[in-house]
Amino acid sequence: MSYKRVLLKISGEQLAGKHDGGFDAETGEWLANEIKQIIAENIQVVIMVGGGNLARGAQWAGHGIRRVTADQIGMLGTMMNALALNDIFEACGLQSRCLSNIFAEQVSEPFVHRLAEKHLEKGRVVIVAGGIGRPYITTDTAAVSLGLELSCDVVLKATKVDGVFDSDPMTNPNARKLDSLTGNEAVTNPSIKVMDKAALGMAADHHLPIIVFDALKENNIFNAAYGKPVGTLINS
Ligand code: UDP
């Protein structure tokens, strides 16, 4: 069983590769080669990029910088990642288009639903910049919203660890990985922090499955897109 259209959410942290921040082009190239495998299987790919490697809104706010401005700075960070990733994908022979949810006509095509559909049907990866273009939203919530808008079959949420654990595996060596859980459990369990509750709640309300997995492990994106057991499935 393979999904027909997937929404891949890649955070800024992943795009920084082994570095603490910034954009790691080698990780971009690696992703291009992994994604080529699923495009070759006629699976359509939408990517929502985060921006935490460059700017995280809440951290910029203060000393006169309003939260709205800080979030706009955050959205510009996602735009930088999206533009860099788009060029790398094309240089690697993977057809892709960057569509922006913030007005930036000199640098990107605007996100227009029908345009995104057209690119996807032509087998191009659609990379969305600027989240959904509004403040007080994370790119995780934007990813779920976009996944619904584009009728994606699943949200593939890339994380550093391979799935959802019953406690933080970075601090607790006995943390247990969960193979699956319901959307409602993900929303109500306060120790599940893999995505913000707004994102989890929206996915649960609309029965959009989420796979939380380590996308930077070889073949994992392919396996997740093929519905093979990787990471944790959150299903409602
Ligand atoms: N952001 C926003 N609206 C959106 C998407 C993102 O305001 O629709 C801002 C927000 O400030 C966020 C920043 O962009 O902190 C970068 O996104 P995020 O923190 O989700 O990136 P990630 O953690 O995935 O790298």
What does this structure look like?
With 236 residues, the protein is α/β, with parallel strands linked by helices. It has a single domain (5-234), classed as Acetylglutamate kinase-like (Carbamate kinase). It is built from nine helices and eleven strands. The chain has helices at residues 12-15, 25-39, 57-60, 67-91, 113-121, 139-149, 183-188, 197-205, 220-225; strands spanning 5-10, 44-49, 96-100, 109-110, 125-129, 154-158, 164-165, 177-178, 180-182, 210-213, 232-235. The strands form two sheets. A nine-stranded mixed β-sheet has the order 4-3-5-2-1-6-10-11-9, with helices on both faces. It has a two-stranded antiparallel ribbon with strand order 7-8. α6 packs parallel to α8 (197-205). The structure holds uridine-5'-diphosphate (UDP). Uridine-5'-diphosphate is lined by residues 11-13, 50-52, 56-57, 71, 74-75, 77-78, 131-132, 134-135, 137-140, 142.
Topology:
Blueprint: E1 5-10, H1 12-15, H2 25-39, E2 44-49, H3 57-60, H4 67-91, E3 96-100, E4 109-110, H5 113-121, E5 125-129, H6 139-149, E6 154-158, E7 164-165, E8 177-178, E9 180-182, H7 183-188, H8 197-205, E10 210-213, H9 220-225, E11 232-235
Parallel strand pairs: 1-2, 1-6, 2-5, 3-4, 3-5, 6-10, 9-11
Antiparallel strand pairs: 7-8, 10-11
Helix pairs in contact: 2-4, 6-8
Bound molecules: uridine-5'-diphosphate (UDP).
